Input
Amino acid sequence: MMAWTDRHCRFLHRQLSRAALLYTEMVTAEAVIRGDRARLIGFDPAEHPVALQLGGAVPARLAEAARIGAEFGYDEINLNVGCPSDRVQSGKFGACLMREPDLVAECVGAMRAAVSVPVTVKCRLGVDDQVPEEALRATIRACRQAGVNTFIVHARMAWLKGLSPKENRDVPPLDYELVYRVKRENPGLSIIVNGGIGDLDEAERHLDHVDGVMLGRAAYQYPAMLLDVDARFFGGARRTMEEALEDYIVYVERQLALGVPLNTLTKHTLGLFSGQPGGRLFRRHLSENATCRGAGVEVFLAALARIPNLALPRLRDLEMA
Output
């Protein structure tokens, strides 16, 4: 989800679900230590609960980045042991670490010693010619001994040789049953399944076998589904689309005043009305106008006005462009 789940995306998703745990895109430990921290890992307090996902393979540097993340106020620090991109392969972290469970354990042990918030691991079943049943269990066993008790498992192998990062999201077959078996073998651990889950019905079926479900591309491409998360899974109240949008419009205005371009804020909304009347007109209006120089909140409002029966007070007197 790199370049997708930035702070603006997370703020939008938080308006749709008050309870779901949100994750940042992966940020390398070196970037956190050396880079513009406010830009890289800054977030709005409204995003809580939110986890910082780190990439790296040097325990001391990951510990320092975790400490910085905790000082920023993140509720969880997550180590990515599953990303198959060329960038992480060249740096020998991400999914490459599935080959080195002892190093992963050393990393998370150093991170846990540096922070008081939970440290978790997101991993694959294994990489390339590894035996998934052995690779996944070895990673979980080593990290459990280092004190980690929550694992998010993308239920595919990562094929670092021969597949692109994009192909690695779809081509390796899913093996949810292995994740279920690992949960049965480790009842005291929190096992969260990820990968290929397209809607909340699928998510609910997984919860018969594991402790949680992580949604990635589906939540981004069809974010309206998040409106049902709180009532369906957390016993909370369901927000309406209008309530969520009212809050996001205020946020857009605030970010525009800080110099953030409109399209940076509205690109995350393009899937809000997928499959609904007016959804295509909404997307077209934003695609054609949000990138224009000086585009303001009126462009977003005009796009929303393309959606029939959207009961937003600010649209009441808006003239169609």
Summary: Residues 241-257 form the longest helix (17 residues).
